[in-house]
Amino acid sequence: MAVGAIFECQRRGVSMPDQLAICGFDDLPIATSINPALTTVSVDRVEMGRHGQVLLQRLAGEAAPHKKIDVGFTLRERQSTYAASKGDRGSNTIAVEPVLFIQAK
Fold first, then answer.
1. Once rounded to an integer, what is the mean pLDDT over residues 38-65?
2. Local confidence band at 55 (pLDDT 50, 70, 90 cut-offs)
3. pTM over 0.70
4. Helix (H), strand (E), coil (C) string for 86-99
5. CA 56, CA 71: separation in Å to the nearest integer?
6. Is 28 exposed, middle or buried (0-12, 13-18, 19+ CB in 10 A)?
7. What SS3 class is residue 39?
8. Domain segments of the chain: what residues?
């Protein structure tokens, strides 16, 4: 979706990141192939999948532990956001902590 937003901004003449900063999720290969390159949040999908098996166990009716799992993330700063394009972190930077919650019904 973020890549599509970049293309639409370009079509409409919106300057990135001066007028609009865009950040995506998943760090797909296309993120570095477009101009401006897309800033993304990257997570370890393999690790997330390992922990996701607990959800599948619960859906199958098996006993599974109740716990909060933090798989971590990496912010890949590129030119679609102001900080990366200007070489600094703006005062509007917000820290986030993505967490995978596993909860039984």
1. 85
2. confident
3. no
4. HCCCCCCCCCCCCC
5. 18
6. middle
7. strand
8. 2-101
Cα separation of 53 and 91, whole Å? 39
Q: Which residue has the tokens 């990257």?
A: 42
- Is the distance from CB of 95 to CB of 73 less than 8 angstroms? no
Q: Tell me the one-letter amino acid at 63.
A: A
What pLDDT is attached to residue 91? 46
- 49-64: burial string, b at 16+ Cβ within 10 Å, e else: eeeeebeeebeeeeeb
Is 2 in contact with 25 (CB distance < 8 Å)? yes
Q: What is the pLDDT of residues 69-94, one digit of tens each?
A: 788 899 999 999 866 556 555 444 44
